[in-house]
């Protein structure tokens, strides 16, 4: 059974490296490589927790229209932003992109690289319908820097 919580996440802003992923060319790892190798450009902009750790790193996703709806082509085609959470009014450095994600209700679950595909499919195909909900947009990846824990954020709404 997948452990989860349902939260209301306010609107957030993320600055990162953006690209189009497709079934033929998934560039997620390339975007993270670009973001990580140029992190010094945005490190001072990232929001921080009281302990000084960054609030979090997001693998934000949207459909190609940038309306933050689900990826198409069986969840294999869409826009991806590998980045760090920032204040909404943060200026965007050259070569970077800022997305402002809408406030939404999310089903959140922990995930590992090994369990990613199985967890994703279980939540989409079983858990969300069992809860009387439906997917309301693009799923996002999140890494909590204070713990190193990876999570999936599934935007949901009542059926």
Write up this protein:
The chain is an alpha+beta fold and 159 residues long. It has a single domain (5-158), classed as Regulatory factor, effector binding domain (Multidrug-efflux Transporter 1 Regulator Bmrr, Chain A), CATH 3.20.80. It is 18% helix and 37% strand. It has helices at residues 28-37, 72-75, 116-130, and strands at 5-9, 12-21, 57-62, 78-86, 97-101, 104-111, 133-135, 140-143, 150-158. Strands 1, 2, 3, 4, 5, 6, 7, 8 and 9 form a nine-stranded antiparallel sheet that branches. It is globular and about 45 Å long. The protein starts with a strand and ends with a strand.
The CATH homology group name: Regulatory factor, effector binding domain
Low-confidence stretches: none
Largest sheet: number of strands, sense, barrel closure? 9 strands, antiparallel
Radius of gyration: 15 Å
> Structural class of the secondary structure composition?
alpha+beta
Oligomer: single chain
CATH fold description:
Multidrug-efflux Transporter 1 Regulator Bmrr, Chain A
Beta-strand residue fraction: 35-45%
CATH class: Alpha Beta
Q: What is the topology?
A:
Blueprint: E1 5-9, E2 12-21, H1 28-37, E3 57-62, H2 72-75, E4 78-86, E5 97-101, E6 104-111, H3 116-130, E7 133-135, E8 140-143, E9 150-158
Antiparallel strand pairs: 1-6, 2-4, 2-5, 3-4, 3-8, 6-9, 7-9, 8-9
Outline of this structure?
With 159 residues, the protein is α+β, with helices and mostly antiparallel strands.
């Amino acid at each position: 059974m997948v452990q989860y919580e349902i939260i209301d996440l306010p609107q957030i802003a993320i600055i990162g490296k953006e690209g189009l992923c497709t079934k033929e060319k998934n560039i997620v790892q390339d975007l993270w490589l670009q973001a990580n190798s140029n992190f010094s450009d945005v490190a001072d902009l990232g929001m921080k927790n009281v302990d000084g750790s960054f609030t979090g790193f997001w693998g934000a996703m949207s459909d190609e229209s940038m309306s933050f709806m689900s990826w198409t082509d069986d969840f294999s085609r869409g826009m991806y932003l590998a980045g760090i959470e920032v204040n909404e009014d943060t200026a965007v450095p050259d070569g970077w992109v800022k997305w402002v994600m809408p406030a939404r209700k999310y089903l959140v679950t922990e995930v590992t690289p090994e369990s990613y595909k199985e967890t994703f499919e279980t939540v989409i195909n079983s858990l969300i319908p069992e809860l009387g909900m439906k997917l309301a947009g693009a799923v996002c990846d999140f890494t909590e820097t204070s713990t190193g824990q990876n999570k999936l954020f599934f935007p949901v709404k009542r059926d």
